[in-house]
Amino acid sequence: MADFLPYGRQSVSDEDIAAVTEVLRGDWLTTGPAVTRFESDLAEHTGGTPAVAVTSGTAALHVAYAAAGIGPDDEVVTSPMTFVATAATAALLGGNVVFADVEADTGNLDPAAAAAAVTSRTKVVAAVDYAGHPAELDELGRIAHDNGALLLEDAAHSVGGSWQGRPVGSLADLTTFSFFPTKNLTTAEGGAVVAGSDELLARARGFRNHGLVRDKAAQRYPDEGAWHQEVHEFGLNYRLPDVLCALGSSQLRRLAEFKKRRAEIHARYTAALSSLDGVLTPAVREGADPVWHLYPLRVLEGRRRALFDHLRAKGIGVQVNYIPAYWHPVFEDLGYRRGMCPNAELYYGQELSLPLFPALTDADVDRVIDEVHGFFG
């Protein structure tokens, strides 16, 4: 059998390895200059919006919701077409997650559904840039702000993309990124929160570092001694170490290259599969400049599982992204029921992520295409 093709994989260069080695030979493994440098480097891709580096995309969501002040009985309106962390991190803070349906073509949060879901208790509308295609952030922002809420963009898939000419990271009140190995760039594990508000940034930085207050001007008991630090609000240790931040800065220098290759692979799949009966290729809305994290093929007539099994048997590591978040038993046990978001459930029932990462060769892509065509005969 030919080599196994995963659906996603990191791309690590000698330059990346050298950047990490340099930190390992230095004085700072964590809380040092590489963290500040990575945050500054990332801001160059977010229209200058400042960043707070954290330990994972999940940590970024948790930090962002904490910065937004989510607590018991506050509502978070979000999409079910996402990894469970988008909802779970709000629930862990006591928030009430309200799932709104998605657009049938993109899998992104439908503005009309979001507008229907918001109430006087809504504190955050959380959009997800599914597969790397930005959500309709301008309209979703208006819906959130007209109701006194914040817009959060879960951009785990879309760093380096843009919507209506504006870079991801500059469009929402809070934006979260993930730098897991399968994402558009990696720090091994890692993430970031981006915000234009000084208040939200300060709250994010505080929550990332146990809530510690070291500024004497802000302390309640500033005369205790030079060693003194205080906690005014609870936080956690979500600090991303210098070692991983150095990898992130090195990876950012290749983000344009990664984006270009992902687009080439995406276009090759679409050219070969768009006329194939039995599947739908991904949609692109006007004004979207995606960074394609996934290639979400839609398999019709209930044949998704059969194609999944066929391709896996051929050594092609397709994946399904995602089970609607409220289908997880943890939400089921809270009273959420299937049938709430029919577009999302239909999308899930058809979706199959084909391999997509920069190191895929054209021959690899053609192998996947041939096997898909072979399945449909």
UniProtKB/TrEMBL annotation:
Modified residues (N6-(pyridoxal phosphate)lysine): K183
Active site, per annotation: K183 (proton acceptor)
Keywords, alphabetical: Antibiotic biosynthesis, Pyridoxal phosphate
Entries under InterPro entries matching the protein: DegT/StrS_aminotransferase, PyrdxlP-dep_Trfase, PyrdxlP-dep_Trfase_major, PyrdxlP-dep_Trfase_small
Reported cofactor(s): pyridoxal 5'-phosphate
CDD domains xrefs: AHBA_syn
Top-rank taxon, per record: Bacteria
GO MF term set: pyridoxal phosphate binding; transaminase activity
GO biological processes: antibiotic biosynthetic process; polysaccharide biosynthetic process
Name of a matching Pfam family: DegT_DnrJ_EryC1
Signal peptide as annotated in the record: none
Family: Belongs to the DegT/DnrJ/EryC1 family.
Protein name as it appears in the record: UDP-4-amino-4, 6-dideoxy-N-acetyl-beta-L-altrosamine transaminase
Organism from which the protein derives: Amycolatopsis japonica
